[in-house]
Structures are given as C-alpha cells and as structure tokens.
C-alpha cells in the first residue's frame, strides 16, 4: 500500500482501534463458543459480553472508513478495480493458501484436504478460518462502489437521508423477526423482499460519505450525540447478549444483538466515529504519530495474519488465569502487537505489497 503524505490522523486512530477490536472479538470466542457452535455459559461469557459488546462495531467501522475515503469513486471502473483488487485479492489468496497449510501442520486437516481447500478459494474462503469472510464482503462493496457513485454525486442531502432512514429501519428487522418471522414479502421463494435493496453493510459506506460531506468539521453536537449513541447502543448490545445467555443453546440464538446489521451496533459504530473523527495531533512526525500511521497502513496485513498468532498466544497464555476478565485483554494485546511486528518485518521483503496489502 502506498503511503499518503496527507493522512487523516483521526481516521488512522479509528482504523487502529477497529483492528484491535476485531482481535479482541476473536479472542473472546474461545470463552463462549463450544466445539459445535454451542454456547459455553458461565462467568467467562459474562466478561466476553462486557468487553466485546462495544467491539462488535469493528467491522462496521472498517466499512465506514472504506466509504469515507472511497465514495464517490473518481477513477474509471477498470482502473479502480485494478488498484483495489490487486491490493486486496493477491494478499488474500496468499493467506488463504497459508492458512490451508497452517491447518495441515497443526493436524487439523490432512494434506489432501489442505490442497482441496485451496482449490475452493474461488467459491468461498478455502479454509474454515472465519475471519476471511470479510474479504469477500469487501470485494462486493468495491464492485458496487462505482455503481452507486454517480447517484451520490448528484443526490441531494434529503435524498441521502431518505436512503439512510430506510436503511436504519432495515437494521431493526432482526428484532421485528422475533415477533413476525416473515415481513414485507419474505417467504421461502422470495429472497428479495420489499426493503432488501436498502439493507446490508453498504449502508455504512453511505453513512460515512454523508458524515464526511455534511459533518466533516468539528461540530458542537459531535460529542454529546457520539456519547449518547455509544452508551445507548452499547447497552442494547450488552443487554441482549446477557438476557439470552441463560437460554440460548447455540451461538446464532445468542448473538442477535451482536449482528453487524442491527440498529444498536450501528449506533455504537456511529458514536465511536463521531467521537474520534476530529482528533488532532500537534506533530504527525512524532514517534506516536508515526506509529499510529504505520499500524494503520499495515492493518490489512494484521487482520489477515492475526488468527495464526491468536491461536499461539491462546495456547501459551490460557492458563494465566481462571478468569476471562484477565485473559481476553492480555491475549488480544499480545496478538495485536506481535501481528504488527510480523507484518512490519514482512514489509521489508521485495514485493511485500502482494503479501501484506
């Protein structure tokens, strides 16, 4: 990835924070997800909920950052896709292959299965390493970015607000489904009900574009609104997990309020975005400023590699304490720091952009 001499420090901070939060979410999974996707109940799950309800906003924050910098697309589609997909797809394929053989060397799969998983990459991520789903989603957003850009260039503020309002309603649908399993034309033969085209993570990209266009400068309302959204959104996210913990048998039943496409997680993400977007640093060339920028630049590589190191630190540190209260932040922080150092080392290799992005 090329370094930008005019970087937005606040958004670098936001990207670093989101990168760490993803790692903490995955660390917490050891302490409430069983081997068959069943729920492990107990004190550790309480700490997972307390710590990681705020961290569920990490993926939405990444998507918002993508929209903030990307929309509207100015390049011709061919040039845009060439730049984006080269930077994203080639490292992704490298790490899919790496994870296939990583699982083989850990004894999780045999050699034939490892090779078969590599061949499956065009169909879906070729290994059962869950975090790789994100790259397929990101590529889908890239595909749609040039399509939505002409509308954004000409759309009025009210038109964008109308879209965001309908999108916000779709974020409530997971809760409406608790009362009405099928709404607005949903049925087994119709995969595109009434508001289908307004739903999904694309809304976070449009939201970020809206905030950049109409609320990029520091506003007096940023702080109180940001805090209110963060606190209320966090409470809903935490409370839903907490209430379902005693009755849910499997993870999908437990994580209803943890979904990226829920109104509460969107509130948390928007709140954090508003609170951080206007952070300034007096000296971007200071050691702290350079470190934040460097971690931000290498965040994609950190994301790709971190599961390998997370498993290592879990094996090393899980017996550190009986309580996830201590283990989650310690393991997550060790994984985050070591992932950065590994990607930093790889960045010195020739053609490293094809490995770390």
UniProtKB/TrEMBL annotation:
Membrane topology: Multi-pass membrane protein
Swiss-Prot/TrEMBL keywords: Cell membrane, Membrane, Transmembrane, Transmembrane helix
An example Gene Ontology biological process: enterobacterial common antigen biosynthetic process
Keyword Transmembrane: yes
One function term, GO molecular function aspect: O-acetyltransferase activity
Acyltransferase domain location: 10-342
Domain of life (superkingdom): Bacteria
Pfam families per the UniProt record, alphabetical: Acyl_transf_3
Gene Ontology CC: plasma membrane
InterPro entries registered for this protein in UniProt: Acyl_transf_3_dom
Transmembrane segments: 12-33, 53-73, 85-102, 133-152, 164-183, 195-211, 223-241, 256-276, 297-314, 326-343
Compartments where found: Cell membrane
Keyword Mitochondrion annotated: no
Family: Belongs to the acyltransferase 3 family.
Protein name (database record): Acyltransferase 3 domain-containing protein
């Amino acid at each position: 990835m090329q370094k930008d001499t005019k970087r937005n420090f606040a958004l670098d901070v936001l990207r670093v924070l989101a990168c760490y939060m993803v790692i903490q979410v995955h660390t917490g999974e050891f302490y409430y997800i069983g081997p068959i996707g069943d729920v492990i109940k107990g004190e550790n799950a309480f700490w997972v909920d307390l710590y990681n309800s705020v961290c569920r906003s990490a993926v939405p924050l990444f998507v918002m950052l993508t929209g903030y910098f990307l929309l509207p697309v100015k390049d011709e589609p061919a040039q845009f896709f060439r730049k984006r997909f080269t930077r994203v797809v080639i490292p992704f394929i490298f790490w899919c292959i790496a994870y296939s053989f990583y699982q083989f060397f850990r004894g999780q799969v045999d050699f034939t299965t490892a090779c078969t998983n590599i061949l499956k990459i065009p169909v879906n991520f070729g290994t059962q390493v869950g975090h790789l789903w994100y790259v397929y989603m990101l590529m889908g957003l890239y595909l749609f970015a040039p399509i939505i850009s002409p509308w954004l260039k000409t759309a009025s503020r009210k038109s964008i607000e109308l879209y965001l309002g309908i999108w916000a309603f779709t974020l409530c649908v997971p809760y409406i489904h608790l009362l009405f399993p099928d709404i607005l034309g949903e049925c087994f033969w119709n995969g595109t009900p009434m508001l289908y085209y307004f739903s999904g993570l694309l809304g976070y990209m449009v939201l970020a574009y809206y905030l950049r266009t109409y609320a990029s400068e520091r506003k007096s309302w940023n702080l109180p609104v940001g805090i209110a959204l963060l606190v209320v959104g966090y409470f809903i996210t935490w409370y839903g997990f907490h209430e379902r913990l005693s009755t849910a048998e499997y993870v999908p039943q437990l994580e209803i309020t943890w979904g990226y496409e829920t109104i509460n997680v969107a509130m948390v993400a928007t709140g954090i975005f508003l609170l951080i977007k206007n952070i300034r640093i007096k000296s971007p060339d200071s050691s702290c400023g350079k470190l934040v920028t460097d971690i931000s630049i290498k965040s994609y590589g950190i994301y790709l590699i971190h599961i390998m190191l997370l498993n290592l630190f879990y094996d090393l540190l899980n017996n550190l304490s009986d309580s996830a209260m201590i283990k989650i932040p310690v393991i997550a922080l060790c994984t985050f720091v070591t992932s950065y150092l590994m990607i930093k080392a790889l960045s010195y290799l020739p053609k490293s952009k094809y490995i770390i992005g």
